[in-house]
Amino acid sequence: MLRVLSEFFTRIMQRYLPDAILFAILLSFITYFLGIFIGGANPISLLGSWGTGLWDLLEFSMQVTLTLVTSYILAHTRPVQKVLETAASKVKTPTMAITICVIISMIASMISWGFGLIIGALVAKEIAKQVRGVHYPLLVASAYSGFVIWHGGLSSSVGLAIATPGHFMEEQIGVIPVSQTVFSSYNLITLAVVFVTLPIILNMMKPKKEHVMEFTADEQAATAELEPNNEPPKQVGDTPAQRWENSRVSSLLLGGFLLTSLILYLVQNGGLDAINLNIVNLFFICFGMLFVSSPKEYVGLGVDAGKSAANIIIQYPLYSGIMAMMTVSGLAAMISDGFVSISTEQTLPIFSFLAAGVVNMFVPSGGGQWAIQAPIMLPAAQELGVDIAKVAMAVAWGDAWTNMLQPFWALPMLAIAKLSIRDVMGYCCITLIWVGIVFTAVFLIF
To answer: What is the pTM of this model?
Structure first.
């Protein structure tokens, strides 16, 4: 049944899903006209808010870009590559390939969403080279499906945001440590259920043998240009400057200073409760520097990372403009208010989850979406007497949930895998349905 259903969704996606940049353009126009005809906004004013809103998320865009680039660099260092190659060499069957791929992606995504996307793509490609009979689009879709839990781990932008002193809702809700969000019992149970069941669901979608598309030698050659050169940098000349820029001592010194700074920060600010997006980025820079052979190699890997980050950098202003129109026209508030109006103390987390899933289609940014929904959802939680941390995590999970339908965050992974969004999104639709069921069930019980 799941195979037939996934084939149906794949046919739909291949026929009707536009490229990610066209998707963003279409959403821009849809939001504009909805803002006028449903939100009642003035057309000229709304267009002006879109133009100025393009740059509202520049700081967050830089943080996101750094997360993607630094996690890419760390994933491509020789120690991490060696671990990936060793893990891939142990995989012998298509079932094992899909299982290992989604599990590694989930673990990496819990550490950092960017790390999960990059590691997932690299694992999928490495396994596909060595395992015969595995359907490559499903393998990559499995890697992207693992990304669905990123908001439940240490990379949760909502969980980290409200744990950071000075966040924009601090006066209303205070600072909420990650022990009440990411490390709460309901969140850990949700993660455990997804960890156990998602590999099973994905394996049930394996196509018949005659429909299997393997990773071929031609595709391997086509993706070679995207792979960084992991050979030690060659010496060019013998000047002091050239020796230092190709010296492991330089990168070790900087990595050591960064590691010391990271440890001091965590010790002085409460350990895990002090983790935020900047600290996650510091972690990646630190270990990336420690694992490369020189600062020059680090910069070279960063240049390669730009190929994966370019699509997101280009499209993020469009989504920032969409977010501005959603806010100014009141569309985001109307969506959230609509769900809040039918909520009770028991159902508010579930409706917060659903509302976030809808809004995420227009604003695929955990931080940006939180800025829109927090002022609506959190006062509703206080009024109904619902745990604020639980509602915050419901919004976070809703944001991660519909990423299985919103192609924006699949771009870095697909750039490495050399596939189209149309090849993988049909399988991700099944992940969307299943995770929605799991989350709703857990929050009904808890």
So the answer is: 0.81
